[in-house]
C-alpha cells in the first residue's frame, strides 16, 4: 500500500483514524479491505477481505464489507487484549 511520495507514517495515521484500509490485493484482479487486529497497543495482525473491482464499485457492498472486516478485527482484538497476560515487575 506504499505509494511514491507518501510517507508510511501518514498512511498508518489514516488507517488508525478510519480503522481500515482499501487497496490493491497481492492477487491480480482483486482489491483488499483490511483492518488491524490489536493485542493491547500492539498490532498483532490484520483481517483482510479480497473483493473483485466490480464488488467495490457498489457503495452498499463496499460499506457492508468494511463493516464486516472491522467487526471481525474488533472481535479478535477484544479477545486478544482480554487474554493478554499482565506483566509483573
- What spatial order of strands do you see in the largest sheet? 1-2-3
Mean pLDDT: 83
Low-confidence stretches at least 5 residues in length (pLDDT < 50)? none
Distance between the terminal alpha carbons, to the nearest Å?
A: 39 Å
Spell out the helices and strands N to C: HEEEHH
Structural class: alpha+beta
Overall form: elongated
- Computed CA radius of gyration, to the nearest angstrom: 15 Å
Largest sheet: 3 strands, antiparallel
Helix content: 40-55%
Topology, element by element:
Elements: H1 8-18, E1 21-24, E2 31-39, E3 42-51, H2 53-57, H3 59-82
Antiparallel strand pairs: 1-2, 2-3
Please, could you describe this protein's structure?
The protein is of the alpha+beta class and 89 residues long. Helix content is 45%, strand content 26%. Strands 1-2-3 form a three-stranded antiparallel sheet. The mean pLDDT is 83.
Amino acid at each position: 500500500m506504499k505509494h511514491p511520495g507518501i510517507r508510511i507514517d501518514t498512511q498508518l495515521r489514516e488507517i488508525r483514524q478510519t480503522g481500515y484500509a482499501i487497496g490493491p490485493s497481492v492477487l491480480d484482479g482483486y482489491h483488499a479491505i483490511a483492518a488491524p487486529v490489536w493485542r493491547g497497543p500492539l498490532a498483532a495482525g490484520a483481517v483482510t477481505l479480497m473483493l473483485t473491482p466490480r464488488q467495490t464499485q457498489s457503495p452498499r457492498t463496499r460499506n457492508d464489507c468494511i463493516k464486516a472486516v472491522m467487526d471481525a478485527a474488533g472481535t479478535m482484538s477484544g479477545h486478544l487484549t482480554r487474554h493478554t497476560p499482565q506483566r509483573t515487575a
